[in-house]
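Case study 2.
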Amino acid sequence: MNSILYFCIGMIKKLHYLFKQRSYHSLVVVLLNVLILIFLFTISRVIFYVANSQFFKEISFFDFLKIFIGGIRFDIASIFMVNFVYILLQLIPLQLRFKNWYQKILKILFYTTNSIALISNFIDVVYFRFTLKRTTSDIFNFLSVGGDFKKLIPKFIADFWYIPLISIVFIIALIRISSFIKVKDVVAPTFKYYLSQSIFFVFTMIVLVLGIRGGLQLKPLEIINASKYAENKNVPLVLNTPFTIIKTIGLPALSNKIYFKNTIELCKTYNPIFVASSNDSVNDFRKLNVVIIILESFSQEHIGALNDIKGYSGFTPFLDSLIKKSVYVKGFANGKRSIEGIPAILAGIPTLMNEAYITSMYSGNKINSLASLLKTKGYNTSFYHGGSNGTMGFEAFTKIAGFDTYYGRSQYNNEKDYDGKWGIWDEPFLQNYAKQLNTIPQPFLSSVFTLSSHHPYKVPDKYKGKFKKGHLEIQESIMYADYSLEKFFETACKMTWYDSTLFVITADHTSEAYLDYYQNNVGMYAVPIIFYMPNNNLKLDSSQIGQQIDIMPSVLGFLNFDKPYFSYGNSVFDKKKSHFNITYINSEYQLIKDDYVLKFDGEHAISLYQITKDPLLKNNLMNKEMSKAREMESFIKAVIQQYNNSLINNKMIVE
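Prediction:
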């Protein structure tokens, strides 16, 4: 990082000397400023790559060159979009533009807009490792739904101090270099001058529009076009954050899809409406309690029992012991953020669009959830989270989903257990949760979402040195959360409701990864999905694929729920159903099914890999197994069509 800073400072000095005290034609001023920005954006891409190199392995020199050439195309589009007003006002053929006050206003406009663009680019140097995509405009909705972000900003700045430092260096570089590029005044403009300037203006506007469009192609440049220059896992290297934010502002979250014109064929391929059943025979509904435990950032990577790696013990000794008494599937998340995980787990709704469901225009749709469906059977329903009330829209969503009670930091009402950042430490909150469940009439459905294994990954002072540290900073706090979970079960097992309770344990999403498998497009979604019931011999094939949106139909199927309902997932206990995982990132869909993973860009399948034979996804089988690719493409089209059209038309329940 220091070498990059020294290089940048050296280039700043050279450019400063080159432009010092010179005056240029307005068009040249604009061109030089654009070239400076292209240079700064390119260097920021190098920094982005260096800081996240573990996610971009095995890139050849040719691939690297292709990525950076493609990146310049996206940089130019961003620069022209950000500076459209500045360029327009700088080249407008009026004598007014030579006034000192006018040029000062333009410089302030230029410095302000481009400083914001550069800062957004550098924020993703760190934020990318949590989401594995460039930030889009949904970040504004995400920040608006509540949370302790203002309190966390100083901590983030302290932990990632180099980001604001590099941002400041680049902004100073922009200001220092650009400030010496001055517009040459025209003493006595003539008709010929105005004519030539008007021609220049029109010509520049044409170039500007072409730059924003990304060229002469039929459709303007979009995020999906980055895949032309790199494999999907390397697409974020091609893009820049200002581009992904601007391109998604005001963009309709979804559009109607008509891959299948025949409704019967569509529903035969994939149908989200069904009746859950644990087996083929008709059984009485079982009024068992249900407790869903959602563990913050608990990637499968951290769990020793779920990793067949010699000498690898993981960081979850208690969960490992519980897994021996449980059943589980090869689990996958349906997103990379908590705000995407909660609707998937509790209501079977994945996020297959650029915006999280909770903050989307569809968040007011009629939906069914575990809470709303089990309430028809007389269940008491509750959701517990130790975070500040309102954070990430969880409280509002659980109300829409039909939960009777939301219990957060305010209801806990003991700031002695506040971690100073996100909310109540896991151990005291889970102890309180166990006691709260003891006061709830049975049968009940309850879910608790932990938070201590979240950045800044701290553990209470009294446990400093108790838990081992791993290759990743999060792993010490994972051990604390696992310890807290153990204490919860020690308390819960003494209570009357315990033996008649089905426990489901999963994660909201994955964390940063260290092992190679968990850094690829499959492993980056791998989470535990565990079913445990005391004194009950549950059966399930652990090699079977499962996903977060399967949890709702799985619970309903286990309970023998007998009413029709709407769910994008399937019961993992139903062997007749298709078992798959679907996700959406960087404007591309991914389908994991039958040991294969397919990438789909909305129109065509673009890659196919066999997971067990090729766990690091190096051998694209698109041209070798075309029939499999077509089969999976047909299935993913059916899922997308059902998903898009049901959200758009507000048909997510069975009337």
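The two ends are 58 Å apart (CA to CA).
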